[in-house]
């Protein structure tokens, strides 16, 4: 039975919300070369382009696999898929802790395209979607991002503090990898033993709603699929480029390595602990996604443009850090936008996984080329290569705004159609009563 929504809040759903949020945090293992960019590069002795190639190896199967993953979570138990993802990704993390060769590392990241791309994303989003109705989606996804942020930032900052200057040594960084892998293995066990699969409706659909491959065609015909894809693509392009701010501060402003790790953790996870739930509450209060995105992404975009013109001198380090934090906080207020169209446009719940999977295939396809392209720019142009990174961030934000504009248009069409149908029903009822 699906969890009922209402005015009592989410207290009765806090356990599944916590477990699902902790589960998605397992992607920290995939994002180790992003969060710990400088020490990861030093320990594994990689060029910037090779660093980007790791995510490209993941994306090679993960991007087309999102569609299959969406279909799988509509066909089978979402709990089983999420649990399998967390446990298997943790095992790959243990393998990575042996500090293997570059080719072996590429293979590990390729295997994560199965454990994460196929099993995790669509299933986890569908599980969260089923915890409440449209009036609660902002809070559900906002709180989920906050929980994810607390777990991820806590681990990143805690490990960086404990290991200190040894973080860019083999022994120090092996401790980082083992810490993440061990914790998420326990999370996977927690999901297996303590998550109530039936209570929250995360089992496969009823027989009347069995998904076939025809579902892909039905999902492809829906505007909601391409709206999610466009918003996700914009968010992910901007987020990928933003992750390079950590090595940027090291290369352009002389920030110490251990500080870059703390900075990356705060940027990627710490800020959204507050921003995501606040943005979710604002979105639910407004009842629509577009006004929130317009009023947050636009000023953040302007700040990013300003950042690109600040001189690269160590005396501007504090100013640059402050502006980056401000831009990220403002933009993170609306980072739940990509998850809102499913409920806002009232997409069929039976197709939720298929729609999400198809949308994510296009939304996350930048992993196939963008990290490697940015790495190429940095290897070729050095610090000047970051000019391209700022330009990519701006492009991502513009794409996101375009997707939200389309969402706003479709949302108004839906509201008008529902009002028209309501008036017709009232007229029909009035005529029936008159007869």
How far is it from the N-terminal to the C-terminal residue, by CA? 41 Å
Per CATH, the class reads Mainly Alpha
* Overall number of strands: 0
Q: Give me the CATH fold name.
A: Growth Hormone, Chain: A
- DSSP strand content: under 5%
Pfam family, one: MFS_1
Transmembrane segments: 17-40, 52-73, 80-99, 105-128, 140-163, 175-195, 216-236, 248-271, 292-310, 316-335, 347-365, 385-409
Protein name: Inner membrane protein YihN
Keywords: Membrane, Transmembrane, Transmembrane helix, Transport
Describe it:
The protein is an all-alpha fold. The chain has one domain: Growth Hormone, Chain: A, CATH 1.20.1250. The chain contains 20 helices and no strands. Helix 4 runs antiparallel to helix 18 (352-363), helix 5 packs antiparallel against helix 6 and helix 7 packs across helix 18 (352-363). The longest helix has 49 residues, at 386-434. The two termini are 41 Å apart.
Characterize this entry briefly.
This protein is an all-alpha fold and 435 residues long. The protein has helices at residues 14-24, 32-35, 37-44, 48-75, 78-96, 102-118, 121-129, 137-163, 170-194, 214-220, 223-242, 245-253, 257-270, 272-286, 290-307, 317-332, 341-344, 352-363, 370-381, 386-434.
How are the SSEs placed, and which strands pair?
Blueprint: H1 14-24, H2 32-35, H3 37-44, H4 48-75, H5 78-96, H6 102-118, H7 121-129, H8 137-163, H9 170-194, H10 214-220, H11 223-242, H12 245-253, H13 257-270, H14 272-286, H15 290-307, H16 317-332, H17 341-344, H18 352-363, H19 370-381, H20 386-434
Helix pairs in contact: 1-7, 1-8, 1-9, 4-6, 4-7, 4-18, 4-19, 5-6, 5-7, 5-9, 7-18, 8-9, 8-13, 8-14, 11-18, 11-20, 12-13, 14-16, 15-16, 15-20
